[in-house]
Write a structure and sequence with these properties.
The chain has one domain: 3-Layer(aba) Sandwich (Rossmann fold), CATH 3.40.50. The protein is built from 8 helices and 5 strands, in the order H-H-E-H-H-E-H-E-H-E-H-E-H. By secondary structure, it is α/β, with parallel strands linked by helices.
């Protein structure tokens, strides 16, 4: 009698166990299926989110050095290029690279496995962006180079842009400087940029020197602007564009 009771209890326990296991597997099945069979959005190739459309449409490309790149701005939205693009109602495309100029290229390996091109060398990338507007700043990194080489480089850069994007408006800003003593060659460079712009039917923007002798607008190193400095540059460029219209 005792053996029959024990065998009955064991059989009942076995049945209960099988029921519980079956229930557990059934309840987990949808979760496993969802992980193994992603929907269309998960299986599609990832791509960057498009920039939001603007009221005027189109984009503005910025060519320049570390100041255009936005060095020392706390966020990309606070660099002067972003502020100017927003004021123009255009989408920012930033091709600024540290240590570059109309003549000088960047340091070795600064653009992946190669040196960043000078401004003329960036023309093919600008053409791919198909901008309605181009703003070029820089030239300070070319200080000390032969004036004739600099003038030719400016002319060649504008000519390349005119050929690649004939319908775009091209603005050339006078070369900027920082807290270091201003070299005499900077005025010569500014004059060369102005002549080249006039000869090629581009627009020269004389923004003066928004950062010179203003340590409150610069980071501790004194070579790049802080957020206040970027705001000052944006104001100077925006006002110069408005006056040129």
């Amino acid at each position: 009698m005792t053996d029959r009771l024990e065998n009955g209890a064991l059989a009942a326990l076995l049945v209960l166990t099988l029921i519980l296991v079956g229930f557990s597997l059934r309840s987990r099945a949808p979760e496993a299926s969802a992980r193994q069979s992603p929907g269309p959005s998960a299986s599609a190739t990832a791509s960057p989110s498009p920039s939001p459309s603007t009221s005027q449409g189109g984009s503005v490309v910025f060519l320049g050095d570390s100041i255009a790149e936005g060095k020392s701005a706390t966020t990309p939205t606070k660099r002067w290029t972003a502020l100017v693009a927003d004021g123009l109602g255009l989408t920012e495309v930033n091709f600024g690279h540290a240590r570059t100029g109309y003549v000088r290229t960047g340091s070795e390996g600064s653009c992946g496995d190669r040196a960043c091109p000078n401004f003329e060398g960036m023309v093919p990338e600008v053409a791919k962006a198909k901008p309605s507007t181009v703003v070029i700043t820089g030239g300070g990194n070319d200080s000390g180079l032969p004036a004739e080489d600099f003038a030719h480089a400016v002319t060649d850069t504008i000519a390349g842009l005119k050929k690649a994007i004939p319908g775009a408006t091209i603005y050339l800003v006078n070369p900027w400087w920082d807290l270091r003593p201003v070299p005499e060659s900077l005025a010569v460079q500014a004059a060369a940029v102005k002549r080249a712009a006039s000869a090629a039917d581009a627009v020269y923007l004389d923004t003066k020197q928004p950062l010179v002798d203003k340590p409150e607008l610069m980071v501790a190193s004194g070579t790049n602007p802080n957020d206040r400095g970027h705001a000052a540059l944006a104001k100077a460029v925006t006002e110069a564009i408005a006056q040129s219209d």
